[in-house]
Design brief:
Blueprint (H helix, E strand, L loop, with lengths): L10 E4 L5 H12 L3 E5 L4 H13 L5 E4 L6 H15 L4 E4 L14 H29 L2 E6 L12 H20 L5 E8 L5 H14 L3 H9 L11 H12 L10 E4 L7
Parallel strand pairs: 1-2, 1-4, 2-3, 4-5, 5-6, 6-7
Helix pairs in contact: 1-8, 3-4, 4-5, 6-7
GO molecular function: 3-hydroxybutyrate dehydrogenase activity; D-xylose 1-dehydrogenase (NAD+) activity
Organism: Phenylobacterium zucineum (strain HLK1)
Protein name: D-xylose 1-dehydrogenase
């Protein structure tokens, strides 16, 4: 039996939502009747087809804004677009992300700048633009998609780990600052999710190591995750819906793990 989170008519912006986790979260919101602004890069025809498909099978209006997450003015315009389209903004999900893996002494300067901009700085810029709208409404929900890497580290991912730790710290600071405004700010910290990017990594690692894909999953990808099981999209969606509904009104400033006990070990 489906849970009604009483979100119909609310409005959400979900960054990085043209594929993977972001698209799954945007879809889950639309299924609850939330009008959604999608954002992200990709093939324009596929983005439009996905937008139409989500809208057609839900009771929600779905729009798209192509803001580049490295450009503050475009991020601000995306928030203004949501307000202009729907008259309000109830939910902001800061999900956009990129990855690059290399030793710290070999890490390209431009890749450091890109990761910090897309993961951390865009979270600040979108939040800065959204908060005045939410303050005027007396209610808002900001959910930042961090990572287990916002709490613990892995080698060769220094900028990603730094950015995700920054997202967690930013979340806590904003939650304290906004505690009496009706706006909650939380972070979801997933373990490994079987996104298209991870699926391609499994294939590549299997070929490189000469082992079966199943061994790559258990011994390489999920080596740090005690349950040896990928996090499913619906597990993240369930937590998101709780946080953005009235049920989550007292949850703020939290970094909630969905990581198969990775950060507990």
């Amino acid at each position: 039996m489906a849970v009604d989170y009483k979100l119909e008519g609310h409005v959400a912006v979900v960054t990085g939502s043209t594929s993977g986790i972001g698209q799954a979260l945007a879809t889950a919101l639309a299924e609850q009747g939330v009008n959604v602004v999608l954002n992200g890069f990709g093939d324009p025809q596929k983005i439009e087809a996905d937008r139409q498909a989500i809208q057609a099978r839900t009771n929600a209006a779905v729009r798209y804004h192509g803001a580049d997450m490295t450009k503050p003015a475009e991020i601000a315009d995306m928030i203004a677009f949501a307000k202009a389209e729907f008259g309000r903004l109830d939910i902001l999900v800061n999900n956009a992300g990129v990855q690059h893996v290399a030793p710290v002494d070999e890490f390209p300067d431009e890749k450091w700048d890109q990761l910090i901009a897309v993961i951390l700085s865009s979270t600040f810029h979108a939040t800065k633009a959204a908060v005045p709208v939410m303050k005027a409404q007396g209610r808002g929900r900001i959910v930042n998609i961090a990572s287990a890497h916002g709490l613990v580290a892995s080698a060769f991912k220094a900028p990603y780990v730094a950015a995700k730790h920054g997202v967690v710290g930013f979340t806590k600071s904003c939650a304290v600052e906004l505690a009496r405004t009706g706006i909650t700010v939380n972070a979801i910290c997933p373990g490994y999710v079987k996104t298209p990017l991870i699926e391609s990594q499994i294939v590549d690692q299997a070929k490189a190591r000469g082992i079966a894909p199943e061994r790559v999953v258990e011994d390489v990808i999920l080596a740090a995750q005690p349950n040896k099981t990928f996090v499913e999209y619906e597990h993240l969606a369930g937590l998101l819906l709780y946080l953005v509904s009235d049920l989550g009104a007292s949850a703020t400033g939290a970094a909630m793990t969905v990581d198969g006990a990775w950060t507990a070990a």
